[in-house]
Design brief:
The protein has about 500 residues and is an alpha/beta fold. Helices cover about 45% and strands about 15% of the residues. The protein has helices at about 15-20, 40-45, 50-60, 70-80, 115, 120-130, 145-155, 175-180, 195-210, 210-220, 230-250, 270-280, 300-305, 330-340, 340-355, 360-370, 380-390, 400-415, 430-440, 445-460, 465, 485-490; strands at about 5, 10-15, 30, 90-95, 100-105, 135-140, 160-170, 190-195, 220-225, 260-265, 285-295, 305-310, 355-360, 370-375, 420-425, 480. It has a 6-stranded mixed β-sheet with strand order 4-5-15-10-11-14, with helices on both faces. α8 (about 175-180) links the parallel β7 and β8. The longest helix has 20 residues, at about 230-250. The structure holds pyridoxal-5'-phosphate. Pyridoxal-5'-phosphate (PLP) binds near residues 269 and 426. Pyridoxal-5'-phosphate binds near residues 113, 271 and 322.
Length: about 500
């Protein structure tokens, strides 16, 4: 399988090159030339396999340079019982006959980023070996919370890697901050930036394009790469859980072979729902893809009008991992639906220069045949948390609640009762304050007290990685001004 940039079809890259490089030189996203189809009966065969075996099967179709033995070693290490608190890895929870929830937060950081960030380090170091690259890869991450911790946990003590995470000083939740500053491992560093998430992200982007720094660090044996969801090595492991969830529903007799399901995904950077689209392309019987947004509803508008306009107010919501105005991975969908690098290049140029673009009527029609978009605000999000808890005795986090609300709106608007799979992206314990409010309890005290309050109210256990935070030592207290991030990198790599 070869990989091309969404902005230039002519240059092909191997999978290893795509994973090591992260982003194409022209600014486009490296993407498989085509999406392979699952062989007939594959889903029936996979039905009785473990999550790890399903992962090997799906990933192998995209990574011919990797042997089944290599991928098996990676999958067993990434999705072991040491890392995930259930052997199912990504279990499907039944609410009623037509409604099921795919739980993606059983990993070491309690958010869905683990599904890919536990696998990426193996794919990346395997790729380094194949390319005979002897430098150490330095992973730079700007995070609004979940990605930073997920990447730290994935890359900790992985040989030939070094990881530096920058987070906005006052822009992450208390639990998220504690998760990062107490991170263990010999190759990790964490640094607060005075500013917001955009400042941290611009700083990291600047470092990536700083030629002087690149040369200086190359002399010291380092090169930079990204663990962001623009990296194909992060999208690919996400295809697996859609295949796996369909197999679980088949195995458990919830659906019959070939029966279509709808999938509803809480969406920020469009990485998770893009993986669902690719799974559909592979032949998983997915009918409709429902894209759920919070008040930052740029995707809802786009799917309805064909106009993508980032020039709008940015809201801080109680589902912060979806507070995003530029959904990077959308570019891969545009490429897949148009098959025209020229058309994608034109749209992205308009987005950069004018802050908006309008897709052709043909493309809009194609998108609307596949996707529906809905959004809700914080008040509604909390109401949904309360409703799902009282109706089904099932506790969900605010991101997942946004998805449940989108599914409600879709069902009301269309009357479509197709079996739905709602994707649950974080443990409710990561966002205790909003969840408690949703249950009608005013949150009192700081982040860690709230863990106990939520546990007492619901009788659910606090997930071990969060309960353990209380006894962890703070290792990283460094704070940098946003203009001094490059210097911080120099010092940290000394
Ligand atoms: C990152 C994240 C999302 C958004 O996923 P995308 O792939 O960026 O669309 C949703 N929920 C949670 C909890 C996340 O951490």
């Amino acid at each position: 399988m070869q990989y091309i940039s969404t902005r230039n079809k002519d240059r092909q890259h191997s999978a290893a090159q795509a994973i090591v490089q992260g982003l194409a030189q022209d600014g486009g996203l490296l993407t498989p030339v085509y999406i392979p189809k699952l062989p007939r009966r594959a889903l029936e065969d996979l039905k009785n396999m473990s999550y790890q075996q399903r992962a090997v099967y799906v990933m192998k179709l995209f990574l011919d340079e990797f042997s089944v033995k290599e991928l098996t070693d990676y999958a067993n290490a990434a999705y072991s019982l040491e890392k995930f608190d259930t052997p199912a890895v990504a279990p499907v929870h039944r609410l009623d006959r037509e409604t099921h929830c795919l739980e993606l937060w059983h990993g070491p950081t309690c958010a869905f980023k683990d599904m890919a960030l536990q696998m990426l380090p193996h794919l990346l170091t395997g790729s380094l070996t194949k390319l005979e690259e002897d430098k150490t890869v330095c992973i730079l991450v700007a995070t609004s919370g979940d990605t930073g911790k997920g990447a730290l946990e994935g890359f900790r003590d992985v040989s030939r890697t070094r990881i530096l995470v920058f987070y906005p000083k006052d822009g992450v939740s208390q639990v998220q901050q504690l998760q990062m500053v107490t991170q263990e491992g010999g190759n990790v560093s964490v640094c607060a930036v005075v500013g917001n998430f955009d400042d941290a992200q611009s700083g990291v982007k600047q470092i990536f394009s700083d030629e002087e720094l690149r040369v200086e660090l190359a002399k010291r044996g380092y090169f930079f790469s990204s663990a962001n969801s623009i990296n194909w090595g992060r999208v690919l492991p996400q295809l697996v859980y859609y295949v796996s969830a369909y197999c679980d529903l088949l195995r458990d007799g919830e659906i019959e072979s070939g029966q279509p399901i709808n999938v509803c995904v809480p969406t920020g950077n469009f990485g998770n729902i893009l993986a669902a689209y690719y799974a559909r392309e592979m032949g998983v019987p997915i009918a409709r893809l429902i894209c759920a947004s919070n008040q930052n509803n740029v995707l809802t508008d786009f799917l309805r009008t064909g106009i993508y306009n980032r020039g709008r107010t940015f809201y801080q919501t109680c589902s912060p991992s979806m507070d995003i105005l530029i959904s990077s991975n959308l570019e891969r969908l545009l490429m897949s639906l148009t098959q025209s690098d020229q058309e994608v290049r034109d749209y992205m140029k308009l987005l950069n220069q004018q802050g908006s673009y309008q897709v052709s009527a043909r493309l809009l029609e194609k998108m609307q045949r596949l996707f529906s978009g809905y959004y809700c605000d914080d008040q509604q999000t909390k109401r949904v948390i309360g409703r799902i808890y009282s109706q089904f005795d099932y506790l969900i986090d605010p991101h997942t609640a946004v998805a449940f609300d989108a599914l409600d709106q879709y069902r009301q608007e269309t009357g479509d009762t197709t079996t739905a799979l709602v994707v649950s992206t974080a443990s409710p314990f990561k966002f205790c304050d909003s969840v408690l409010e949703g249950l009608g309890i005013p949150p009192r005290g700081d982040g860690l007290d709230l863990l106990d309050a939520l546990s007492e109210r619901t009788g659910m256990h606090v997930p071990a990685p969060l309960a353990g935070l209380r006894d962890k030592k703070v290792r990283f207290e460094q704070v940098v001004e946003k203009d001094c991030m490059a210097d911080a990198v120099r010092k940290l790599l000394e």
